[in-house]
């Protein structure tokens, strides 16, 4: 098996030339475009499902840690010093 992957235009031309006997050239082009659009939509749906599953798994792990060890204290650049955290807006 080779590692060659045809370009989109080469695949479109091969599809259009191979279907010349059953439908018009314009019909073949639009059929190919629908196929590509459906393939891209399926790929994006799969990606969204994978991202949702990973986020959900991370969220569940975080909640489990929070329940067993307590909430995690924010440290570093985004931490609010204790003196400012207690003040509030007294204006």
Task: Sum up the structure in keywords.
91 residues, mainly alpha, 3 helices, 68% helix, 0% strand
Describe the fold and architecture.
The chain is mainly α and 91 residues long. Helix content is 68%, strand content 0%. The chain has helices at 8-18, 25-69, 82-87. Helix 1 packs across helix 2.
Helix and strand layout, with pairings?
Blueprint: H1 8-18, H2 25-69, H3 82-87
What about the largest sheet?
A: none
> What is the structural class?
mainly alpha
Q: What is the number of helices?
A: 3
Total strand count, please?
0
Q: Roughly what is the average pLDDT, rounded to an integer? A: 78
Radius of gyration equals 27 Å
Label the overall shape: rod-shaped
Order of helices and strands: HHH
Q: Could you estimate the helical fraction of the residues in percent?
A: 55-70%
Strand content: under 5%
Which ranges are low-confidence, i.e. pLDDT below 50, for 5 or more consecutive residues?
none
Q: End-to-end span in angstroms? A: 73 Å
Summarize the structure.
The protein has 91 residues and is mainly α.
């Amino acid at each position: 098996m080779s590692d060659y992957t045809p370009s989109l235009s080469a695949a479109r031309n091969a599809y259009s030339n191979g279907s010349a006997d059953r439908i018009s050239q314009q019909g073949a082009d639009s059929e190919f475009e629908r196929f590509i659009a459906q393939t891209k939509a399926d790929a994006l749906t799969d990606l969204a499902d994978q991202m949702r599953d990973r986020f959900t798994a991370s969220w569940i792990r975080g909640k489990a840690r929070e329940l067993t060890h307590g909430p995690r204290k924010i440290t570093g650049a985004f931490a609010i010093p204790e003196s400012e955290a207690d003040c509030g807006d007294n204006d």
